[in-house]
Design goal:
Layout (H helix, E strand, L loop, with lengths): L1 E2 L11 E3 L2 E4 L13 E2 L7 E2 L14 E3 L8 E5 L2 E5 L3 E10 L3 H6 L2 E6 L2 E7 L9 E6 L12 E4 L11 E3 H14 L7 E9 L5 E8 L2 E4 L5 E5 L2 E3 H4 L4 E6 L6 E8 L7 E7 L6 E5 L10 E9 L5 E9 L28
Parallel strand pairs: 4-17, 5-6, 19-25
Antiparallel strand pairs: 1-10, 2-3, 3-25, 6-9, 7-8, 8-16, 9-15, 10-16, 11-12, 11-15, 12-13, 13-14, 16-17, 18-20, 20-23, 21-22, 21-24, 24-25
Length: 346
Amino acid sequence: MKQSRIFSVAVASAAVVGSVVAVSGTASAAFDPEGAFRVTTNADLSQETPGQAYPTDSESGWFTGAVAAPAGTVTFDGAGLNSAGGNVQLLNAYTADASTLTDLVVDAAFVSDGDATFQVPLYANGTGTDTEFTTLRPAATGDAGFTPDSDWVTSQAFGTYAAGDTATLAEFQAEVTAIDAAGDQTAPATILGYGFITPSPLTSSVQAVAFGDESTWFIPAPTGTYVPATLTVTQVSTTGITVDGAGFFPNETLSVFFTSENAQSSGDQDTVLTADAQGRIAGTVVIPAEDVQGPGTYNIVLAGNDSGVTLAGVVTVVADDAVVPVPTAPVAPVATPVRANAAFTG
């Protein structure tokens, strides 16, 4: 999996899903689980019209860009937003002063599998040379490109750079400043949006994007169950607890936390589970006997080590059934035969 940052667990918001509390969040400052959009169907996207301003009619702000043929398709599943079959571009309109380009990119987060490449379209003020607009993208896909010294590429001529030229992000930032200085001082260079592109014939799955004060998840909301909800002390450390969940990053590992309800900190277990290619998890968690403090209410949490997505549930541990001796019936005395003379009457 390619991602722009190393994520870790941070519980930020919660919603009860069946018998499990589902929490989405990461320790990355870029992601805001409370205000994040979740885009999981094509109905959540609008479509760009060539020659017109970026569309803003979808609730999420995301739209498919106008691309050269062959145009690919967008589908959604547990792996996220999937691009295949041709050129696919997804953008979100976002207005910011281009002087903040480097800061915004350095703080951005992009999580994907395959060959999606992050993009930032921007427009510098008019100079009359038709070199004011370009879309910048990292020279490398995935987790590279999110530092000032990373190489980026132009989509078309921009200032002194020709289409397809490569320079560091810091150098492009300086070019923005130069174009601004030579152009209309009342129209500062502007970032027009952000997003990603997957060129034909490549494929990709994108799980999450964050830029500026916006964050978007393309994976389904986390759901899951823990079974049984009530089990004995012995069962916890022998047959264990079965978990069935979804909504994690594809193929990420999950840590397990198990602690009594009144504990001040979570007990991190040695057990590590792994989500499948659709972000689903199915397995059994067996808690070592020494971590079970007797009967009581316990919290169990699975935490995605990349996504920060957690599934938190509550299980009740009861005492093992007491072994009650089964009473035995008294032994009947052995019958003693009695010899007697038969009496006849006639």
